[in-house]
Specification:
411 residues, alpha+beta, 52% helix, 17% strand
Length: 411
C-alpha cells in the first residue's frame, strides 16, 4: 500500500521530478564509471603476490678498479669471479643474523628488466618470463606453491623447472605438471618439472605474468656469474630481530672476497616504493580528478533534494494535521528518493553494461564479468543512497517538527 502511494506521489510530481531525475541519471553514470575504476584499482593493488618481502634486502656488490686500493692482479687470484660470488652467498648464509641468502638473475621483485624464453610441450609453445634462481630464492622470498603451502628446499631440484600455476593450466590443460618434462629452447633441451608455484605478478597494479623458474646448481651459479656478475642479484632475508645497521657495518668488511666488496644493503621495500612511485602517483591524480568531479555532482544532488524537501514544509504540516507521524512522513520522503534513485540507476546500468561490452572499461586487471558488473552496480547504488538520504533527512526532520496549525496558516 505504501509503495503504491509513493509511486502515485512520484507520478503526480513528475514534472517537478524531471530535472532531479535527469541530474540523478548523470551522477549515477559518472559514479558508476568511477566506482568501476576504483574497484579495479583496489583489486589490482591487493592481487596476491605469492611472496613476502618483509626483512628482505638486496645485497649490492661491485669489483675494485685496477688502480684502486686493495686491488689484486689477475695473476694472483685464487678463484674465478663466479666462485667469488658463490663464496659471498655462502658467507651471508652463515651469518647469525641471516635466515637465508640467494643468487638470481632477473628474478628479484620490483626490478625494471626481465628475460623471456620459449617453452614447448608437444605442439604448444609459449613465450614466458624466465627467472634464473638458486633454490634458496624460494625461501628468501617465501614463494608459495600453488596450494599456498611453502616449498621444501629438498623438493626443488637443481637444473629443473618450477612453473607458475597459469603456465601449468595453459600447457597441461588441467593436469598436474609435476614430474613431467618440457622442452626449453632447442629440441634436445628437455627439462623436468619439479614443482608448481602460485601466479607471479611483478608488482601491485600488474597482472600475473606466465613464467617459470630455472633452479641453478652451485655449478650453474658459478658459470652464470663468471661473465654476468654485473647483473647478478644477491638477496638476503634477515631474522626478524636482526639489527640492519649493525649487519650492514659488519658486512662492509666481511664480504670482501678478492676484488669484490660490499657497496650497500638495500631494503626490497625501498625498491618497491621506487618501482610503484610513478604508478601510484598516476592512480592518485586520476582518483583526485574523478572524485572532484563527482563530489561537485553530489553536492548538487544533495542541494536539490534539500531544496525540494524544504519547499514541502506545508505539505508535511498538512499530513501531520490529518494524523501522519514524523516517522511516517520521513518514510514517505525517503521512499520517494529511493524510487527516483532506482529509476536513475536503470540508464546508468545500461550504459555501464555497454561500456563493458564494447571494451571501453579496463580489462587489463580483471575481465568484465557479470560478477564485476553486479558488485560495481551495488556499490554505486549504496553510495548514491547515502547521498540521497542525507539530502532528505535533515530538511525532512526539521519540516516534520512543524506544528500543524502553523502549516495550515501558511497554506
Amino acid at each position: 500500500m505504501m509503495i503504491r502511494h509513493v509511486m502515485k506521489i512520484c507520478w503526480n510530481e513528475r514534472k517537478k521530478n524531471a530535472f532531479l531525475l535527469t541530474e540523478l541519471c548523470i551522477v549515477a553514470i559518472a559514479l558508476w564509471y568511477v566506482t568501476d575504476y576504483l574497484f579495479i584499482m583496489n583489486a589490482s593493488y591487493h592481487v596476491p603476490l605469492n611472496r613476502d618481502i618483509k626483512d628482505t634486502y638486496n645485497v649490492i656488490i661491485t669489483q675494485r678498479e685496477k688502480d684502486s686500493k686493495g686491488y689484486i692482479p689477475e695473476e694472483r687470484l685464487t678463484q674465478t669471479k663466479g666462485e667469488d660470488i658463490l663464496e659471498i652467498a655462502n658467507r651471508l648464509r652463515l651469518h647469525p643474523a641471516v635466515e637465508n641468502a640467494s643468487v638470481s638473475l632477473v628474478a628479484q621483485p620490483y626490478i625494471t628488466h626481465d628475460s623471456y624464453t620459449v617453452l614447448h610441450r608437444d605442439t604448444l609453445s609459449r613465450h614466458l618470463r624466465c627467472y634464473m634462481v638458486d633454490r634458496e630464492f624460494f625461501d628468501v622470498f617465501r614463494i608459495r606453491a600453488k596450494n599456498g603451502s611453502p616449498f621444501l628446499l629438498e623438493d626443488l631440484l637443481p637444473e629443473q623447472l618450477v612453473l607458475t600455476a597459469d603456465v601449468e593450466k595453459d600447457l597441461f590443460e588441467g593436469l598436474s605438471a609435476v614430474g613431467k618434462q618440457i622442452r626449453w629452447g632447442e629440441e634436445e633441451s628437455m627439462r623436468n618439472i619439479c614443482a608448481v608455484s602460485g601466479t607471479m605478478p611483478q608488482a601491485e597494479f600488474m597482472t600475473p605474468l606466465p613464467a617459470f623458474f630455472y633452479i641453478m646448481s652451485d655449478k650453474g651459479v658459478v658459470e652464470m656469474a663468471e661473465n654476468n656478475w654485473e647483473v647478478i642479484e644477491m638477496s638476503v632475508r634477515l631474522k626478524p630481530d636482526a639489527d640492519e645497521d649493525a649487519f650492514r657495518k659488519e658486512m662492509m668488511n666481511g664480504l670482501n672476497v678478492q676484488n669484490f666488496y660490499l657497496v650497500d644493503i638495500q631494503p626490497i621495500g625501498d625498491m618497491r616504493t621506487s618501482f610503484l612511485e610513478h604508478t601510484v602517483e598516476q592512480v592518485k591524480n586520476r582518483i583526485y580528478i574523478l572524485l572532484f568531479l563527482v563530489l561537485n555532482a553530489f553536492l548538487a544532488v544533495i542541494g536539490v533534494f534539500w531544496f525540494r524537501t524544504s519547499r514541502r514544509t506545508n505539505e508535511i504540516g498538512l499530513r501531520k494535521a490529518v494524523g501522519s507521524t514524523c516517522k511516517d512522513i520521513r518514510h514517505i520522503l525517503f521512499s520517494e528518493g529511493i524510487v527516483l534513485l532506482i529509476l536513475a540507476m536503470v540508464p546508468a546500468m545500461i550504459i555501464g553494461a555497454a561500456l563493458g561490452r564494447f571494451d571501453v572499461l579496463s580489462t587489463y586487471f580483471m575481465p568484465f564479468t557479470l560478477k564485476r558488473f553486479a558488485i560495481v552496480t551495488a556499490l554505486c547504488f549504496l553510495s548514491l543512497c547515502l547521498i540521497v538520504l542525507a539530502g532528505i533527512y535533515f530538511p525532512a526532520r526539521r519540516a516534520s517538527k512543524i506544528h500543524p496549525v502553523e502549516a495550515l496558516r501558511e497554506e
